[in-house]
Amino acid sequence: MGESQAMVAEGYNASAATVESNVDSSQSVANVSLVNGTGPEGGSTASAENGTATDNVPVTAPGAGHIDNAGSALSPEEERLWSIVRANSSEFNAWTALIEETERISQDNISKIRKVYDAFLAEFPLCYGYWKKYADHEARVGAMDKVVEVYERAVQGVTYSVDIWLHYCVFAINTYGDPDTIRSLFERAVVYVGTDFLSSPLWDKYIEYEHMQQDWSRLAMIYTRILENPIQNLDRYFNNFKELAETRPLSELRSAEESATVAVASDASETALSESDGKADEGKSQADGTSEPSKLESAGSTDPEELKKYIGIREALYIKAKEFESKIIGFEMAIRRPYFHVRPLNVAELENWHNYLDFIESDGDFNKVVKLYERCLVACANYPEYWIRYVLSMGSSGSMDLADNALTRATQVFVKRQPEIHLFAARLKEQNGDIAGARAAFQLLHSEISPGLLEAVIKHANMEQRLGNVDDAFSVYEQVIAVEKGKDNSILLPLLYAQYSRFSYLVLRDAEKARKIIVEALDHVQPSKHFMEALIFFETILPPPRKIEYLDPLVENLIKPNVDTQNTASSTEREELSLIYIEFLGLFGDVESIKKAEDRHCKLFLPHRSRSELKKRSADEFLSSDRTKLAKTYNETAPAQPVSNAYPNAPAQWSGGYAAQPQAWPQPQAAPAQPQQWNPAYGQQQAAYGAYGGYPAGYAAPQAPTPVPQAAAYGAYPPQAYPATAPLAAPVQQPAAAPPQAYYNTYY
């Protein structure tokens, strides 16, 4: 008991070092107080551990003291479930089934229970309910020091959860008899979550405890602190405070500081009165000994005026808090899921968080901003857009420590498998002068997160070009092209060649080198609609003469059905390409080349149109411009979007890019956008427990953030102007909806 109680005290002292223990708890905490504690930089990570004693599994091992029976035989169902989570550690349902199975058949084997909980909570540290279950298992076997250890890991893993702090405080009340130990834990809790709109259960438990202790001055101070904050049930707290003030003497309610202030005020009042009555009366009063009793009487007074003044001070705080509550109540009521879950949030709730953050940021209270972001990032932990917004908000306010903290948590824990956050990290590091860090972020994308992501290749090469490393920029393309050459029917390869050729010309203005890249591409790729589209566009930006005689047979081979050659383009794609080529010739060709292309188009595609479709065309349509006709034809036929499992967005990229050019074909409709604090010391703690499982030096064993497939929209290469990628509405596919406004600028 004494050892575990000391652990609670140590946990408090360590936390107090990070939350500025000399700051009065009724005041706003400083910047560092608003994160999950600080410690030595770069905590080590634990090695991978197994579902059994011999098999490799990409989860983090428990601490050395927890492995006494870890090698116990697994049931067939356990083996099956372990194999699932080894293959994909983000399979939430498999994890919960594994926990249930382990608890069912190994209830008395605490080592196996520790092992599965450590592995699960390394992947999902925000699941406060499982931290509570883990602690209950430790309590069941009587390991109180282990219970405290689990709770300490929990409050560092999900620091801004009212529920986990409440569970920890209830455990302390039921375990320890020392009021100072219990109060210190309550104080830690309210520093982090005492201003949370939903913090009433924690405050209620604190009030209940002090009421049992009959420490009325502490109880009155708790009510005073509550009334400063716009939290739920504020009316109830104010009424309860008034009832307390009316039933207890003020001498019991005032703190020592308040009593001393009253005594000083009483002395000053008596002094003034004595001076006005004359020295004789003053001497008589002192001789009779009436001065001291008068002061004591004032200190313990229940005079109605004094009581009214005492309550009035708190009522002013209450009124101010209620005014602010009226401004945020709409946002709070729209939060349907304030806790973490792997299921995606609906679009309305995601938008509500953005609107709420907008309001709090406009209010200008930095501490409220940080606290709300931390609340948001419990519910929205799987959404890169909120992490990006948090980092930018902290950076713009000059709090780079908080910005770096948030970026570290995002890239190493919560959205570590989503390319968007790593692209953002690379851009931010470049802006901050950390070129090595930016290159590391791109390398992680190329090797682990999303190999072959065209957007990452383009942005990496562009960064090297900005830095003056033209050869390195070319090398980025060449390395990825070399990898893609080794794949069968790579969809990305033609797009890489086309972009590499275009990049070469725009950087070096060497048309021959650019054409040489395209010629090489034809030896390695099967021409497709998107590749030919890119090639046609490329010719539009090159200086004259245009190589029409070179383009024409390539276009003809693709748009003409030919059983002797492999042609994967659909009839719609072939017709679209023919129209694009005709428009190109209208700008740069002669009358003979235009006639040849139009005759070929009529022969290949017009006979296949139904008579009813032709009859629908009105007379005024025939009188419209050729450009309008072309647009109508293009819009009436939805372009096909062949999608690859490996590169789901690659085929659509060139179409979108070239459509943005003047005098080019109309742009196809874009696919709808889909959609806590990191404590370095905590990383050291979890070296033994795997609570986070951060990347080792080689970025091994990356994990997916959710057990459901990611939305594919992010990987699409943006239009020619390279706008910023729209934030994902959810980490899984959502119903089509307008995406939230991006909170960061273009990467270019």
Could you explain the architecture of this structure?
With 748 residues, this protein is mainly alpha-helical. Among the domains are: 202 residues, Serine Threonine Protein Phosphatase 5, Tetratricopeptide repeat; 92 residues, Serine Threonine Protein Phosphatase 5, Tetratricopeptide repeat; 67 residues, no CATH class. The chain has 35 helices and 2 strands. The chain has a two-stranded antiparallel sheet with strand order 1-2. Helix 13 packs across helix 15 and helix 17 runs antiparallel to helix 18. The longest helix is centred in the middle third of the chain and has 30 residues. The radius of gyration is 34 Å and the shape is elongated. The C terminus is likely disordered. Pfam families: HAT_PRP39_C (PF23241), HAT_PRP39_N (PF23240). It is found in: Nucleus. Belongs to the PRP39 family. This is Suppressor of forked domain-containing protein. Keywords: mRNA processing, mRNA splicing, Nucleus, Repeat.
Low-confidence segments, ≥5 residues, pLDDT <50?
A: 12-69, 282-287, 289-301, 622-627, 629-748
Shape estimate = elongated
CATH-defined architecture of the domain at 76-260 and 304-320? Alpha Horseshoe
The major β-sheet equals: 2 strands, antiparallel
Beta content: under 5%
Task: Specify the helix fraction band.
Answer: 55-70%
CATH top level of the domain at 76-260 and 304-320?
Mainly Alpha
Structural class computed from helices and strand pairing = mainly alpha
Mean pLDDT reading: 74
Figure out the total of helices: 35
CATH superfamily of the domain at 76-260 and 304-320: Tetratricopeptide repeat domain
The CATH topology of the domain at 76-260 and 304-320 is Serine Threonine Protein Phosphatase 5, Tetratricopeptide repeat
Strand order of the largest sheet: 1-2
Could you give the count of β-strands? Answer: 2
Report the C-alpha radius of gyration, rounded. Answer: 34 Å
Distance between the termini: 59 Å
